[in-house]
Amino acid sequence: MTTTLLPAAFAVFLWWFGTGAILFLDGLSPRTFRWSLLAWTALLCAGLAALWATADDGSVSGAYLAFTGAILVWGWNELAFLTGWVTGPRKAPSPLDASPWTRARHATAAILYHELALAASGVLIAVFTWGGANRTGLLTFAVLWTMRLSAKINIHLGVPNPGEGFLPDHLRYLANWFTVRPMNPFFPGALILALASLGLLAWAALHPAASPGEAVGLALVATLLALAILEHAFLVLPLPSAALWAWAKRPSSVPTRPSRRQA
Q: b/e string for 68-93 if b means 16 or more Cβ within 10 A?
């Protein structure tokens, strides 16, 4: 139980509370953004320090610390994006008559700096942990990056619930590249690959040959992947996902530019 249920509960709490904290900070006055980002930069440094210190620590505590460190690094990137500090060079929607290829280029330009920051963060974590006994941090960040990229692609190609309501007022122009449609051909394949990966992680975590530290680390990563799959389900099923973070979000005062709708 201590190598499966407790790590799962910890991962769920960190996912839920961390997301809520970012949404809460992003819902404050823009005048507070620099201070929020400065404070999270301290957490970013703490997260990187934890990843560095636990690179060769294969213990249970090492797995928890590395997982938390990777979440803190990811959280900095999310807050920097949602506050508008690290987004992309394009700040305006595509013209209504833009071709699909042009829209895709514009959508990429709108989040380019954010994607580069995520890539740089991943490389830094890899450098800090490469060759070490503790792979929890690197696997955690890899799962977050892969599943978030999948979600972005699906939202651009079209899903029933692209989640415009999670966009802050100053990023409402991003909804221009969201597409509402019943399904897109990328979604089923991405979901199958994610479920297969979850099965492999769960199998490895429960394998008798896994050490306690390995089992806990894999359980943490597997739970995070399961939550990312749940977030994908929110894109296509009429589930009240916003209710999970109702305590952290403030009502929007700026109307959303409608997402592009396709049959």
A: bbbbbbbbbbbbbbbbeebbbebeeb
